[in-house]
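Hey, I was hoping to borrow your eyes for a little while. I've been staring at a protein lately and its backbone has me curious. You're getting the sequence in one-letter code plus the fold written as tokens. Would you mind checking whether the tokens look sensible for this chain? Here's the protein in full, and shout if anything looks odd to you:
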Amino acid sequence: MRLEDLKYEFPEMPKEMREMIEREVEKQVKTEHPQFQRGRKTVGRTIAASIAAVLLFGTTVYAGVRAYRLTQEPTGAHGVEVKITGEDDTKKAPLEISDVKMEVGYVPEGMVQTEEGKYSYETDLQKGGVSLVLYKMDTGDEQFEVRHDDVSLSENFTVNGYEGVYLEMPHLYEDDISFNQRIYVAYTDVHYVLEMYAASDVTKEEAMKIAEGVKLVPVGEGEGAANISAYNWSEYQEIAEANEQYADADLEENRTIPEEKMANTHAVGESFPSGQEGLTLKVKDVQVADDLSLLNPALVDEELKNETDENGRLLPADIQYIKEGDADSLSEVVRSRQAAQKLVYVTVEYTNEGEEALSDVLFVGTLERIAKKDGQMQMFSEAYYEEPQEGDAWTNACNRGLSSFWEMYYYDVFGGEEHKNYIDSILPGETKTVHMGWIVTEEELDRLYLNLDTCGGMEFSDSSLALGYVDIRQ
């Protein structure tokens, strides 16, 4: 995950919070008509749209027709506040809002649906494309308000008679994909708002065409894979507020612990219980290499191959020093340097010491970076960790190599319904072996601890400490 991507997606958070956010928000994306019009809708068009809404949905959603507008206001040279405003300052709650869903009528050629509300190009599945979410304004239209910093372009538009806002953020790396575009469309006659995230591999024109093809239909009609359910704005606000509180919290408490809390650390070759009845784990072997020769060639994807030179040796990672943008400035790369990369290849044994067969055994390996600092054990927050010193122009160091990934990038056992990181079965007394691989920077080799907790890592947790990290420092 790149710094640039993190800025335009979701911050680190506990697994439970992350799952809620992903369910409610991660689908976000928005598009628009390529021949958009600027300016305010006429009163006649507003009333006509409201009448059409009553005919379509069969109910009056507000006590009377009121004029609502989706607007954008600057909050600095590069900050934008997008919100819905009414003709007066009252906060009248809706009496009734009909339940609708969203149909996506147009997607660019070569783009396919990957899950509800998400579309990406077949050539870059799960890496870019668009993600859409529909909000039901159950708290009243005027409650819709979002803020964005680091905005390089903002425009008003209309699509199918509805007002929208298009935002574009800096795309720092032309060879990477980041979600640097936003589109908002307000269906104020029926009290819904569309939000769309569009990646850098989608042109503005195509994003607008996707928005143009969006249609709201009553729930129960036109069922199909392209339908997208709506989420209550009140629920989104609760989750966003909880996420903001988490982001503002002192995360060092979760990444810094007394040394004695890591007393349950295991050595290579040591067996220890997994927490699942009858199942034990053992890191049998750890190897470090300058190339990918330890890996099964059939499982080496293009991204891994791109990390090597013509002789098959790993290329250095590019460490970018970023000055993050805000309401008054845009993000920029201040300087960069290179760091040598290594392959860390680990052999893990899963043994069933119970009396019953185990099935669909999930395995996950996260390579944590941990070092002793000021008498405490500190887990570094990124795969490459540096803090700016006084006078530095940059605010974050971003590793653009595969050494920025903490979870196992490579594994050679596949199972379960999705043919992913599961062991289909382990009989009593049987041992199954899994090989896992990561790319790391050479300067990190002396701080590597393997976390086999299936809940993942990135910060110290009770479950990971109870399971125990495996010391694989080199």
